[in-house]
Amino acid sequence: MKRRLRVIGREGGSPSDAPRWGTGLPRSFTAPAPDGRVRSLKDAVRQRVPNLWKTVREHRHMARDLGREVQRHGLEGVTKPLRAIARSVSRPAPRSPRVWLDLGDFGDLIDFDDAGTFQDHGLGLLRTILKQAGVSTDLASTRTVRTWEGVRRQLRGYDMLIMNVRSYTYSQAARAAAIFKELNPNGRVVTGGMHAAVSPDEMIATDVFDHVCTGPGEKIIVDLVTRPESFPRVFEGQGAASMAEWPNIDRTLWPKPASLRLQYKSQWPLEPGLGWGPRPVATVLTSRVCPWQCSFCNESSYIPNMGRRPVEQVIDELNALDDEYGINSVVIHDSMFFQHPSWLKQWLELYPKRAHRPWPYWAAGRADTVCEWPDLFERLVRETNWSTVSIGFESGSDPVLRMLNKQVTEAENAFTIELINRIGDEQERAGEEPVTLWSNVMLAIPGERPVDAIKTVRMVKTMKRGTPSIAFYAPYPGSALGHQLIAENKNLIQGDHERNPHDEKVAGVDYGFYRELLRGEHDAWIAEGLSAEDRARPIRLNWGGTLADLVQKA
Ligand code: B12
Ligand code: SF4
Asked: How far apart are CA 388 and CA 371, in angstroms?
């Protein structure tokens, strides 16, 4: 588990400020250190009473945030969030015999400004279904504490531990289950989630897991939790045929941030988001599975297909959240929002009319579908306030795109970038906020040649308002390429499946070259063939960092 709290106060940044999972957000911020006596005093406080230091720092950040909000929105900017905090002070409920452990990195719900603050829809959905069936579960979280001791304190005295296990939380789930068994020798550990679907063998081999559900859990969760003895150790789950059957998530069943500052920023049970739109953010899902088969992802091979959530339901859920909490922007968490033109046309028609406000939103598409339906895309951007378009470009080179089975070409990527540049220019000329492009890009892909990587960085340079999320390819279980590399023993990231450009992921890849590339040592090569304007445009990650900031010692 990586350390999250960095000491503020040293001059300049350091490699550990590079983003954790490719969002482009730093782990922490650094500020120039004041010299002289103030600095010595601060150092002394920090060393002798670190907890007091942390608390003061947290409240100072919060005061700064409050000041900014008042400047931007007047008193409204603080009264709403403060009301949300007051509302979230809940009375303790009677203790349940079962506990659901929310998984994620330590401290993410204390003081972290990254994707780790996003809430888990799997947990939210299944706990809502349980609640509606009258089955209580308590909630614990690894994100609201900083140590395993903190986790241990939450797990004592229960009959059942329930977890949604993803590949990137598997090692955490295994350790939590072992602690639970030690504290509650007769307790049962009941698991499901994406990792159970893609790596059942690893889950089965972990004897602290008493039940492993390899699939969706909507239709079985109530029986499983109330009559676990009637289920075998490993079994296939059962999901809804359509997302229309999903109840609205009761968001108060999500873990509450454990610091006042993050409670304020989130306006829990809404979320703080990643700066794609104004806070507070409502996250929603409109579709469950992406039908493409990219070899590094390939969701359709392990998530059963299901009907998309009707447009009206999505909008009504947002309106209900707005009535209850007041939302300012939306993140549509779908892997692939820009699919099913008939659904999209309905969204185009209804969102501007039926939603209380056409809140700006973040949603993802693919370059090939943008090329297939460019008019629909443009209208959605302009008329529904699709303010941050996320596209998985991945590479700027055809041979690599073919290897990734991306079903997209260099030319389609270029067309999409040009279209988004043009729409943004026109919006800017009309005095509107221009659309921004969140672009997912991979480097260090096995088989990629230096010239391919150069073309990828060149492609990023052509994005006028782009925020690249740059990852080093990481082999994931569940994907065709991931399986192959794991089987060939070339996977170097056993355990934590992260894709940051910090460390080496696959044996045989020349990471030295990629570090040179990020440090700018091949900039002259990248500049070849670019227009003067593109050449001069710096690549900026969304926290202001440069590619060079991403380089960390392997
Ligand atoms: C939204 C999302 C995110 C969001 C929010 C994550 C969050 N807090 O939940 C963000 C953007 C932060 C994110 C980040 C990442 N994500 Co993501 N993300 C998704 C996405 C698109 C939707 C997740 C979701 O809400 N699904 C809907 C819910 C209802 O499904 P569910 O949680 O799986 O739960 C169902 C079943 O699994 C089951 N179930 C779950 N728990 C339990 C428990 C029991 C007891 C039972 C019986 C059943 C059961 O029933 C539920 C209902 O059907 C999925 C893809 C997808 N389509 O699912 C990828 C996905 C989960 N992410 C993935 C990855 C790899 C990541 C990153 C590691 C990427 C990276 N390298 O940077 C990071 C990790 C960040 C971090 N450390 O937190 C992978 C995980 C692969 C795997 N094998 O586990 C997925 C599957 C995408 C993919 N195709 O590769 N992600
Ligand atoms: S990478 Fe994107 S487009 Fe490809 S299968 Fe995964 S979600 Fe779908």
From this structure: 18
pLDDT digits (tens, 9 = 90+) for 406-451: 999 999 999 999 999 999 999 999 999 999 999 999 999 999 999 9
Determine the residue of 292, 369, 402 to mutate for testing ligand 2's pocket, defined as the one with the most ligand atoms within 8 A of the Cβ atom.
Answer: 292
pTM: 0.89
Pocket of ligand 1 (CB under 6 A): 21-22, 104, 115-116, 118-122, 125-126, 162, 164, 166-168, 190-195, 198, 213, 216-218, 221, 224, 237, 239, 285, 288-289, 297, 299, 303, 333, 335, 476-478, 497-499
Instruction: Return the best residue to mutate from 168, 289, 405, 496 for the ligand 1 pocket (most ligand atoms within 8 A of CB).
Output: 168
Convert the pLDDT of each residue in 236-274 to its tens digit.
999 999 999 999 999 999 999 998 888 888 899 999 998
**Which one, of 402, 385, 401, 382, lies nearest residue 393 by Cα?**
401
246 in a structural domain: no
Identify the domain boundary among 88, 106, 128.
88
Is residue 540 in a domain?
yes
- Cβ density class 115-152: b for 16+ within 10 Å, e for less: bbbbbbbbbbbbbbbbeeeebebbbbbbbbbbeeebbe
Q: Does residue 304 sit in the same domain as residue 170?
A: no
Residue 110: domain span: 98-235
- Number of structural domains the chain divides into: 3
